[in-house]
Design a protein that fits this description.
The complex is a heterotrimer. By secondary structure, chain B is an alpha+beta fold. Chain B is built from 3 helices and 6 strands, in the order H-E-E-H-E-E-E-H-E. Chain B has one domain: Ferrous iron transport protein A (FeoA) (SH3 type barrels, Roll). Chain C is of the alpha/beta class. In chain C, strands 2-3-1-4-5-7 form a 6-stranded mixed beta sheet, sandwiched between helices. The longest helix of chain C is centred in the C-terminal third of the chain and has 18 residues. Chain C is globular, with a radius of gyration of 18 Å. Classes of the chains: A mainly alpha, B alpha+beta, C alpha/beta. The complex binds guanosine-5'-triphosphate and magnesium ion.
Chain lengths: ~475, ~90, ~240
């Protein structure tokens, strides 16, 4: 058979189609859907029976509060604050317990290696590098995430997320985008890469791209505990988890505002266009299966954190240890890098080591804090890092941190480029190197500007 | 098509957006074209369907409507393109 | 191979998890699943591959996910398609179910969320529904595990051909039916039994660009199985 003969037949067929339905005069689609619906009505007519109304309309009562003019926004804020407070307050104790246990394990390991007469570098590389980095990632990341995610999943299963989209849509519309962006942002809390994939629910390519480029402004699983730890450091004197959670709420709100502003800027410049159509189904509220969800999501998160820890934190620990212990001209490579970055870090209210940690943390945000700790400890005196107080000692007394350092680091963590996995996902989803690059450069630019302005004005005004 | 109807019975046909919360009405025609039209039809908004206005977002827009047992939110722009018989 | 289709948020992923024992994410909002997932279950020694599709309101392919789901159902032709319906919202769910019945006779209807329907005092005569539509109808409450045994039984029956189905086919207005009658024989000659020609005729009449492109691609492959080139050009 000659190539293309069948295709030619199809062309002929399409001409026939044009004859049968000239200028689409049959209004086929409308007519088909109308017919289907009238059949569906006929079918359900005798078969689906409604016997009276339910006694109590929970959906209506709940929605009357959750989407009301008066309580709509305050209740959202309150819910956010409560969840963060539970997370911050609840994570403290298990975090410290795990840190203590890991530290105990580290001492035993060192003792074992000593007893085996292993060379010093073995202890350094494996225990002080790999083991310690892993231990920090797990003890800093796991407890808050194992508390936050069950709460979040409960809301998700109840049906709260579409209400957020319903409440916030007008803001997104004003920013030239789609209300479903708030759903993708919610997914971003779990992992920005998952948030980027969730952007598929946004139909207009322009709005989807905006949602992908701004998903990073939602603190993900890897950055959220970093923010909590820094917030804890900030309020140390007051020592209340309530004020720490307020700070975290503030940071998250800053992220949401940044998302809206950047989305607006993008839809006025690079991704010009008007908001597309918006239809959103609000499903009925469903009673979540408490037990199953809690066990399920704790288990899920534990696996997620552990997997990331093994895949990223362990190798990172090894690399950092090498960087901190291989010396060139009497100074470690890490210190060389940090020294080089230091002036720039100072401009942004931070220091060279912090910037170094963010740079090396590109593969995964989880390792930013461990990298920072390791590089600080490699340069200072050895201390037992088993409490927040010790952490504070290290940061404030030995490395001259002020509140400005902590705030700038939080803002930089919130705003800077997405992690490697997320960038890779953006590349796969957008299929474009240009947008992937912008997905890194836009947030980086914003992070640099915000930190610079804050640091310089704080110094100018004599606040620090 | 919808416009002609509008002229004939101007007193009775309004857009879905103008349906006050708590009231219901039947769909008269869909003015939207293309994909939005299809989406609306697929949601069951064929002429003759009953819709009820349920609530307004605290931000003023969108509004939620009950359509064949489901609750669907439309922005102002979409709701304007749905004409109803009051 | 078995496909799970249905409106968004009707519990497809929950059914999928219950049957395969996997942990596909579920959530009470439309659009939770955007990537299709595959798993398997065994019934009476037969292994079935189950595909969880993103939720769709129709098969007219108005969005990327809908197109994914539609292409899968129509062009990959699963051995059976399970349409998961929301018992509290039957009319709109039937819109999709009737469209699926147009594409393939091997369908099992899974009326899910019956616990919620009960709470809302909605009662459904499943037997009458099955008689009307000519395919098995199974009431389930996937989250509580109710009705899943019967669902598996019916899926396996339909996929293996043990259960015969006589799907309800919608008759459209006369002009459309007339046009379909003219097109169908020609289509039959062109594609044989590879596609459902009635459905294809309707889609072509509607000038559905995605379907036309898919058919073109398929024909190019038939013309010259080795010709990747033709496919690329036509695509
Ligand atoms: N009460 C009740 N809830 C259910 C049942 N089946 C599923 N659900 C809940 O319904 C919600 C939606 O379920 P999913 O399985 O995610 O729905 P889906 O069809 O996969 O949704 P999409 O992926 O968005 O298309 C979840 O919150 C489930 O827990 C059921 O039989 N009864
Ligand atoms: Mg799903």
């Amino acid at each position: 058979m000659s190539r293309g003969s069948l295709s030619a037949d199809l062309n002929e067929l399409m001409q026939e189609v044009n004859r049968l339905n000239p200028g689409s005069s049959l209004k086929l689609n409308d007519s088909i859907v109308c017919t289907i619906y009238s059949r569906a009505e006929e079918i359900t007519g005798g078969i689906v029976l409604r016997r009276g109304k339910p006694k109590f309309d929970w959906d209506k009562k709940l929605d009357d509060v959750i989407t009301s003019r008066v309580f709509g926004f305050p209740s959202m804020l309150l819910l956010l604050a409560v969840i963060f407070w539970i997370t911050v307050a609840g994570a403290n104790i298990p975090s410290e317990m795990m840190a203590t246990a890991f530290f105990w394990g580290q001492e035993r390991l060192t003792a074992l290696l000593h007893w085996l007469h292993a060379p010093a570098w073995v202890n350094g590389f494996f225990v002080e590098g790999i083991y310690r980095c892993l231990a920090w990632v797990v003890s800093v990341m796991l407890p808050p995430m194992a508390i936050f995610f069950p709460c979040f999943t409960l809301l998700e299963d109840m049906g709260y997320l579409p209400r957020i989209a319903f409440n916030l849509d007008n803001l997104f519309k004003k920013a030239g985008t789609h209300g479903k962006q708030s759903l993708t942002m919610s997914m971003g809390f779990g992992c920005n890469a998952a948030g980027v994939i969730a952007c598929r629910i946004i139909e207009s390519p322009r709005e989807r791209l905006i949602a992908m480029l701004t998903n990073n402004f939602v603190p993900c699983n890897g950055r959220f505990p970093t923010l909590i730890a820094l917030a804890g450091l900030l309020v140390m004197g007051m020592a209340t988890s309530l004020s720490a959670s307020f700070i975290v709420v503030g940071v998250v709100l800053t992220g949401i505002m940044t998302t809206l502003v950047v989305s607006w800027l993008l839809s006025k410049t690079l991704l010009k266009g008007v908001p597309s159509s918006f239809t959103l189904e609000l499903p009925p509220y469903r009673k979540p299966q408490l037990g199953r969800i809690i066990t399920r999501s704790i288990f899920d998160r534990t696996l997620f954190v552990l997997r990331r820890a093994v895949l990223v934190a362990a190798p990172a620990g090894a690399v950092i240890w090498l960087l901190a212990n291989v010396h060139i001209g009497g100074v470690s490579i890490l210190a060389h890098g940090a020294n080089w970055l230091h002036p720039f870090g100072q401009l942004l209210g931070m220091d060279g080591y912090i910037l170094m940690a963010f740079l090396l943390g590109l593969p995964a945000n989880e390792i930013v804090i461990p990298i920072l700790l390791m590089s600080y400890m490699a340069t200072g005196t050895m201390i037992e890092l088993d409490s927040l107080e010790a952490l504070r000692q290290l940061f404030v007394a030995e490395h001259g941190w002020t509140w400005l350092t902590a705030v700038c680091m939080m803002l930089f963590s919130l705003l800077h480029y997405p992690c490697g996995t997320t960038l890779w996902t953006i590349f796969k989803e957008s299929g474009s190197l240009k947008w992937t690059a912008l997905a890194a450069l836009i947030p980086l630019g914003i992070a640099v500007i915000v930190c610079f302005v804050l640091a310089q004005s704080a110094r100018l005004l004599g606040w620090v | 098509m919808g416009n002609r109807q509008l002229d004939n019975q101007a007193d009775k046909i309004i857009s879905l957006y103008d349906l006050p919360v708590g009231r219901s009405a039947t769909v008269s025609s869909i003015q939207a074209e293309g994909i939005i039209r299809r989406r609306m039809l697929d949601l069951g908004l064929v002429p003759g369907t009953r819709v009820e206005a349920l609530r307004i977002s605290p931000a003023g827009d969108p509004k939620a409507y009950r359509i064949r047992g489901a609750v669907i939110a439309f922005r102002k722009e979409e709701a304007y393109q749905i004409l109803i018989n009051l | 191979m078995i496909a799970l289709a249905g409106n968004p948020n009707t519990g497809k992923s929950t059914v999928f998890n219950a049957l395969t024992g996997l942990n596909q994410h579920t959530g009470n909002w439309p659009g939770k699943t955007v990537l299709r997932a595959a798993g398997r279950f065994i019934h009476h020694g037969l292994t079935f591959k189950l595909i969880d599709l993103p939720g769709t309101y129709s098969l007219m392919a108005n969005s990327v996910e809908e197109q994914l789901a539609r292409d899968f159902l129509c062009f990959e032709r699963p051995d059976a398609t399970v349409v998961v319906l929301d018992a509290t919202c039957m009319e709109r769910n039937l819109n999709l179910a009737l469209q699926v019945l147009e594409t393939t006779p091997r369908v099992v209807l899974c009326v899910n969320l019956i616990d919620e329907a009960e709470r809302k005092k909605i009662y459904i005569d499943y037997r009458a529904l099955a008689v009307k539509l000519g395919v098995p109808v199974v009431p389930t409450s996937a989250r509580n595990g109710t009705g899943l045994d019967r669902l598996v039984e019916n899926i396996s029956g339909v996929a293996t051909g043990r259960i015969e189905t006589k799907p309800y086919i919608i008759q459209y207005k006369e002009e459309i039916e007339e046009a379909v009658r003219r097109l169908e024989p020609k289509l039959k000659k062109l594609v044989g039994d590879a596609f459902n020609t009635r459905w294809l005729a309707l889609r072509l009449l509607d000038k559905d660009q995605a379907v036309i492109a898919a058919v073109e691609q398929w024909l190019a492959r038939q013309d010259d199985p080795a010709a990747g080139m033709a496919e690329v050009i036509l695509a």
